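Q: C-alpha cells for this one, please.
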Amino acid sequence: QVQLRESGGGLVQAGGSLRLSCAASGSIFRSNDMGWYRQAPGNERELVASITSGGRTNYADSVKGRFTISRDNAKITVHLQMNSLKPEDTAIYYCSGNGFGRTYWGQGTQVTVSS
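A: Here is the predicted structure, written as C-alpha cells:
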C-alpha cells in the first residue's frame, strides 16, 4: 500500500523553527521525486520545496535561505527544516511523492506561526 504520513507541525512564534517529517510506505518513492507543498486558507496549494532521488533540491522563492529539504532513501523519509518562520508561512503542509505516473499526497499537517 502506498502511503505518506506527515508529522511535526504545530504552533510556533515568528522567528522560530519547526521540522516536518514524512514517512513513506512503498519503495516506489525511493527512486522518485518527493516534496512539500502548502495550502493556506483561500489560497491554492503551492510548492514549497522538492528533492530528486539524487538529492537535487528546488525551493519556492519565498522560503529560500530559510527552509531546507532533505531525504533518506534507505528509510524512505523526507524532512523539511523550517527556520526563521513568518506568519505568512501559516498553512497546512503536505508531503508529496511521485510514482506509477501520479502524485501521492499525505493527509497534511498544520503549521501556525504567530506574530
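A few notes: The chain has a mean pLDDT of 95. The chain has no helices and eleven strands.
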